[in-house]
Amino acid sequence: MTIKALIDTDNAVSDIVGFMLVLSIMIVSLAAISLFAQPILNETKDEIYFSNMEQSFTLLHSDTNDIASGRSTIKTRDLNIANAHMSFDPDSTNISIIFDGSPNISYNAGSIEYDIKDRKVCLENGALLSSYGTGSIVISEPLIYTDGQTTVINLVQLDGPAFSVGGEGIVRIIQQNNFTESFIHKDSKNVTITINSQYAGGWAHYLEKQGFNIESITSDNVTASINRT
């Protein structure tokens, strides 16, 4: 009789319904977390990956300056390309310099670039630049400057076999000095530099800050000049 009375009551049904209700709420909560929180978690991971690579590229930029200045003859750097893409193009970033209206120097600087989603960091012509989709900035400066009387333009050319890799893994960059040349133009009063680069906006801002006059700028080209009085 006791067993029959228990079966006839609603207590057991309430417990089961209550358990199913709690379980349903938990499942819905987990689904909501997966739906709304996962993109945020992925974005946070990408931010961490990019921040770490920016720091690695800062060290790579320091290596390049050490090689270009003669402080070192060879530098090796390992870069972890976690869940992203890295490439090297020796034919990119054409730079030309004109003295008093006559073309004198034109060459391809080459560039090493890391990108994840719409964020990029790039080493080219001794400068470290970063792009955030809407524009670009110089985050580590090249050796290009002027005081109005003397203008110094260091041209750093990255050469070697092109590559493009993605996913996860280690990329080893070995830099060594192949040759160094110096050009001195004592009588030149006008110097014009043109840089063809997808980071033209960053280059323009830097050159203007150094005292150059920006003659023209597009999304992938900037021309700047300095006139000695």
Helices, by number, come to 3
Order of helices and strands: HHEEEEEEEEEEEEEHEE
How much is the radius of gyration in Å?
29 Å
Q: Name the shape in a single word.
A: globular
> Approximately how much beta-strand content do the residues carry?
35-45%
Spans with pLDDT under 50 lasting ≥5 residues? 1-13
Give the overall pLDDT as a whole number.
81
Q: Order of strands across the biggest sheet?
A: 8-7-6-5-2-11
- Characterize the biggest β-sheet: 6 strands, antiparallel
Describe the structure.
The protein has 229 residues and is α+β, with helices and mostly antiparallel strands. It has one domain. The protein has helices at residues 2-8, 11-69, 200-210; strands spanning 74-80, 84-89, 94-99, 102-108, 111-116, 119-124, 127-131, 136-140, 144-146, 151-153, 163-167, 170-176, 190-196, 213-217, 221-227. A 6-stranded antiparallel beta sheet has the order 8-7-6-5-2-11, with helices on both faces. The longest helix is centred in the first third of the chain and has 59 residues, at 11-69. The protein is globular and about 80 Å long.
Chain-wise SSE layout:
Blueprint: H1 2-8, H2 11-69, E1 74-80, E2 84-89, E3 94-99, E4 102-108, E5 111-116, E6 119-124, E7 127-131, E8 136-140, E9 144-146, E10 151-153, E11 163-167, E12 170-176, E13 190-196, H3 200-210, E14 213-217, E15 221-227
Antiparallel strand pairs: 1-12, 2-5, 2-11, 3-4, 3-13, 5-6, 6-7, 7-8, 9-10, 13-15, 14-15
In short:
The protein has helices at 2-8, 11-69, 200-210, and strands at 74-80, 84-89, 94-99, 102-108, 111-116, 119-124, 127-131, 136-140, 144-146, 151-153, 163-167, 170-176, 190-196, 213-217, 221-227. With 229 residues, the chain is α+β, with helices and mostly antiparallel strands.
